[in-house]
Amino acid sequence: MTGQTSYYEHGTAAERWARAQLFFDAREYAAAARVLSNLAPETPEQLAPRLLLARAYYHSAQLSRAERELRDILERWPVEDYARLMLGRTLERQGRAAEAAAHLRIAGAMTGTFREGPTVTVPGGEGEA
């Protein structure tokens, strides 16, 4: 489509954002990613399009792209706990469990859901009624 904008690039930023959300909600993750991959760089100061782009990449199994986007998000917004959780899950899906664990622990600590290993109840132990 030389000289013409494609359907994915057509319209204002607000129209493309709405289109991307519709694609994502319809589970058309690759289409959402196509829209967002052009939109997110236009508004680098906005987290929402970049986070939705990372989610669209993740759900469409574009894991390297999801990882790259999540690392970029965390570089700019280091306390974005959801991006940290997603990065951990993305690394897990890539078979990089040890690397994922560190990000999942950080995300858990940030949200107050941190657990240090499995919880074990000892019969007759302290605190048991």
Describe this structure as you would to a colleague.
It is built from 6 helices and no strands. The protein has 129 residues and is an all-alpha fold. Helix 1 packs antiparallel against helix 2 and helix 5 packs antiparallel against helix 6. The longest helix has 15 residues. It starts with 12 loop residues before the first helix and ends in an 18-residue tail after the last helix.
Query: How many H/I helices?
Result: 6
Count the beta strands: 0
Structural class: mainly alpha
Largest pleated sheet: none
Q: What is the 3D shape?
A: globular
Helix content: 55-70%
* Strand-residue proportion: under 5%
The poorly predicted ranges are 117-129
Nearest-integer average pLDDT: 85
The succession of helices and strands, N to C, reads HHHHHH
Radius of gyration equals 19 Å
- Distance between the amino and carboxyl termini: 72 Å
Furnish the topology, listing elements before pairings:
Elements: H1 13-25, H2 29-39, H3 47-59, H4 63-76, H5 81-93, H6 97-111
Helix pairs in contact: 1-2, 2-3, 3-4, 4-5, 5-6
Concise summary:
The protein is mainly alpha-helical.
Name some characteristics of this structure.
mainly alpha; 6 helices; single chain; 129 residues
